[in-house]
Structures are given as structure tokens and as C-alpha cells.
């Protein structure tokens, strides 16, 4: 009988002990943690080590520097020179808006210095800057809201101003080759 009692007690003890579920959840948690740490390391490396330094950000060019750089490239190529002395901004009321809307434009004029007829154009344009600005104001103030909002407005305005500017120059002074609109704001 004692043997039977011992056998019954052993069976009860085996039944009372919880079965081990294994180390699978612990192993999965450990693998997930390692992957997460590696991802954070990669992110930190890309974000902080490969990010632009303060000096690089200070070297970013402003729009004025970009325009000046383009002018220098054009002078070097010999195709076209922008008359920086004859560049100007103007603000006009848009026709038909009763003064509630306006147009701000920055205009730069270009010419081909290789053409013999243009040899005096720089001095003529510099001396006539007030007349050129007046011509631009007169033309721009006559534009309607529809005309200034048109997708091809800048191109149309540029070509119309080129014709008007060239017609306003005295004979023998030369001709502008292009009118660049470098700023165009409709408010």
C-alpha cells in the first residue's frame, strides 16, 4: 500500500507542476529588440553623420547670388550679357481691379556684346533707365487680372516689353536681345 500511495503522490505532483511553455516568447522579444536597436543605429548614422554640416548650409546660394552666377556664366560664354545697372523693379495696380490687386515685377535686360551695333548699348541703357522704367510701368499698368494670371503671362509680357524697349532706344544704339522677368508677384 505504501507503494501505491507513493505512486499516487508522484502522479499528483506531476499534475500540479505547470508545463513549461518554452522560451519562444523570450527569444522573439530578444530578436525584435536587436532589430529595433540596429534600425535606430542606421537612422542615427544617416540623420546625424551624413546630414549637411553648418558650413554647408551657410554656403547655400541666395537667389541674387544665383542670378549673379548666371550673369558671369553668360559673360564667359559670350552669348548674352545682362545689364545689371539697368535692372529694375516696379509695382503697378492691375487694370480693372480698382486698386485692390497689384503686380510686382523685377526686370533685367540682356544684349549680345559681340554685335558691333551694341557697343554703346550699355551706356545708353544706363542713361535711359528712367525712360525704360516708365515704358514698363505704362505697359504693365494696362494689363488686366486675366492677362497677368494667364499661364503664359510672363513670356508674353517679356516679349512685349522687349519690343517696346527696343522701339524706345535711339537709332544706332543697338538692340536688347532679351527681357528677363526675375520676380513676378501678383497680389
From TrEMBL:
Keywords assigned: Cell membrane, Cell projection, Chemotaxis, Cilium, Flagellar rotation, Flagellum, Membrane, Transmembrane, Transmembrane helix
Where does this protein have compositionally biased stretches of type Acidic residues? 57-67
Protein origin, superkingdom: Bacteria
Q: Where is this region: Disordered?
A: 55-76
> InterPro entries given for it?
FliL
Report whether Transmembrane helix shows up as a keyword of the record: yes
Q: Which Gene Ontology BP annotations are present?
A: bacterial-type flagellum-dependent swarming motility; chemotaxis
Give the UniProt subcellular location, in the record's own words. Answer: Cell membrane
Transmembrane parts of this sequence: 26-49
What the protein does comes down to: Controls the rotational direction of flagella during chemotaxis.
Stated family:
Belongs to the FliL family.
Would you tell me the protein name for this molecule?
A: Flagellar protein FliL
